[in-house]
Amino acid sequence: LENRIKQAIVDIVGTSNFTDSLIDLVSYSYDASDHEQRPDAAVWPAKTEDVSKILQVANTYHFPIIPRGAGTGLAGAVVPIHGGLILDMCRMNKILDIRIADRLVRVQPGVVYDDLQNALAPSGFCLYGVTRDYVLSLVIVLPNGRILRTGTDCMKSSSGLDLTRLFVGSEGTLGVITEITLKIIPKPIASKTCQAFFADLQDAGQVVSDIMHSRIVPSVLEILEENAIQILRNHGGMKLPDARAMILVETDGYTKEEADFQMTEVINVLKKNRATRIQVAKSPREAEDLWRGRKALSSAAARLRPNNISEDVTVPISKVPDLLAGISRIARKHGLLFVIFGHAGDGNLHPKIMYDRNNPQQVQKISAAVGEIFHLTCNLGGTLTGEHGIGLAKAPFMLLEHSQTSLDLMSAIKNLVDPNNILNPGKMGLRTGAQ
Amino acid sequence: LENRIKQAIVDIVGTSNFTDSLIDLVSYSYDASDHEQRPDAAVWPAKTEDVSKILQVANTYHFPIIPRGAGTGLAGAVVPIHGGLILDMCRMNKILDIRIADRLVRVQPGVVYDDLQNALAPSGFCLYGVTRDYVLSLVIVLPNGRILRTGTDCMKSSSGLDLTRLFVGSEGTLGVITEITLKIIPKPIASKTCQAFFADLQDAGQVVSDIMHSRIVPSVLEILEENAIQILRNHGGMKLPDARAMILVETDGYTKEEADFQMTEVINVLKKNRATRIQVAKSPREAEDLWRGRKALSSAAARLRPNNISEDVTVPISKVPDLLAGISRIARKHGLLFVIFGHAGDGNLHPKIMYDRNNPQQVQKISAAVGEIFHLTCNLGGTLTGEHGIGLAKAPFMLLEHSQTSLDLMSAIKNLVDPNNILNPGKMGLRTGAQ
After folding, report:
1. Is residue B144 within 8 Å of residue B55, measured between CB atoms?
2. Tell me, what's the ipTM?
3. Using the beta-carbon criterion (under 8 Å), do A401 and B99 form an inter-chain contact?
4. Model-level pTM?
5. How far does A145 lie from chain B, in Å, by closest CA?
6. Residue B133: which of A133, A389, A409 has the nearest Cβ?
7. pLDDT digit string (tens) for B265-321?
8. At A141, is the secondary structure helix, strand, or coil?
9. What is the C-alpha to C-alpha distance for residues A291 and A269, in angstroms, rounded to an integer?
10. In which region does residue A181 sit, left (phi positive, over 0), alpha (psi from -120 to 50) or beta (all else)?
11. Closest CA to B192 of B106, B137, B262, B144
12. Do A160 and B412 touch (CB under 8 A)?
């Protein structure tokens, strides 16, 4: 970035909200993935108008803008592979409006999830489920600096093209989101938690399928395979049985009876499928105990090797057993140390593979294994990512899941909205004007 | 349409699936709105490949294609104002796949809602809520004939731009949807229904607001204002009290306790707000009785004059009382005969104005009143349409709700996807290439 450009940015936000110091640039060179690249500078905008002015400068001088949240992403979406200016949204962390009677909340993009839940708690409300399904409207700064308001504060609308969902999940490639209005729902007041073990992975898979056939909508349906159980036994200090799979289920409701009824159904399904050591928590404290293994697992596994990768492949729910078995087969074939856990009720599994980045042979095996896992997932009718996004990590695999027609249309939309390709270039496998 | 074009279409679908007979063209010249225009021909495709071939012909010779469902639309979205070829999807009415374990169903676009609900009923599953929120994936034929698959059969995905929602609600302007995969949910087994009356409209509005502040998620929360009650009394033969508003609430659950608990909360709210004649149904039959007025209302009102228009303006939930009062004020000012009812829990009201099309003075008043209602709605932070869509009816009002930036982007996307403007031209207020 030339000095006159840096000066133009400073003129917008002030000296104290701009940095090009080495230590800051190193911090901004990575997220929670393995990818790394240093930006040229970073800026902390305070409001939509700042963002608009910054984008006008970028669009004039054609340098990359990389919008960044808390940097916790696992797919490298905020790593500035073409350099440019990091737009750190951390100062835009306000809860702008809580409107219970309208069942919505309006926030800035830097707000932290727990802060928002805590702010909603006194009213008995919460966020829940898949975030994108709860986005009602957005304020977005387009690459040319124009400010776009999409959607509505209404619970439903059939008015015009749905621009809101086009921008949600676009990973900063189409615009910079500066305000988000989210639907909120009453927080369930009752819940039941239960844990069970299986000597056979197929039985655990059948539990998932049977629960889906039932009238139950569990709020949690987690699965852990045998490696995960082993690691918790051997390295997490937990007294768990030697089993092929563990399932953790939570049901909830606005009455105790509702949560209880659903749990009774769950237990019937567990028993029918030869579950062993079925434990139902009798108190919130016991529920916390049952959660302990699931919560400790990821870091217990991570400690076994210097590096690890976490995937989040997702399949239609009935394919969870096939995906579990397939991932195990692939990882074993390559002699890799791995665990698999995930949200079976969503078909979303998180295989985690531990390795040493300084061992080139391991790196090669990881790379091969991950490719095979993506092939397997897509062959099962699945998606590359349930939660983490495409970013850099999964960009090379887009055509496994999406057709050329689909990727062409995504790329054409990117070119339409951002003809100079200034917004988070090189992400999500989009082909841009230059090619 | 020239004869060689008609022949090209016949070559694709066969003689028996093409028509240009006057009687058919008259049938296809309108939907359930006031708009009317005759197409040049109509075709009944049987499969995605037929649609693809037809669109290739249209894109070569540049004539309009108007995809059409059952023709029940209230906004004129399927009226062929520029002539062209009606693509009647009625033959594509198959339920392709019911996958309970994956909690989804795959259908063709011509499937009738009740048929689908009936097919799901034996498994205890159903569709529910706002349809667009349940669309997982689509097969779409693009204007150039290319076949696009969007989305995934998974319960969640963060993979690439969300093309699915771009096409849902695009009213046939971007592509022809030929397959739809929808999420399904377990059908609640218990429900409670309750009716109450109010001497003051503000009290009824406060009920809506209080219910929103509670932990209740009513499955139904309908409101009827005084004209609606009068019409049911005077012309519907129903014994209702003389009141300013009526509210109908339904709660449901997967246990009887859940539905009962929520209804108890509702009744508390009703009593607190001075409701009179609170009636809770003790049986499904009594519930049906309570529903009778709401269900009879629309046609009872329609019979009072030769013509009527039905709107579906929607506001943030807390603004329902303001919208109700405002619509009444506008309709009275113009001396129009009207009723208002709607889904208060969604902020969605259906004002219905009865008139005589042959009375030019009435037509002028209607037109003025509708414009004022749209202004009011948008000033309250609302949307032109909760359910019916934009079509022709609301196209002139798009800028009341959407900014120029927003409409520009919608139009640019339309031009990108359909550069020859062959798909349902002239709808939704999109500006197309010619302009």
Report:
1. yes
2. 0.96
3. no
4. 0.96
5. 11
6. A133
7. 999 999 999 999 999 999 999 999 999 888 899 999 999 999 999 999 999 999 999
8. strand
9. 20
10. beta
11. B262
12. no
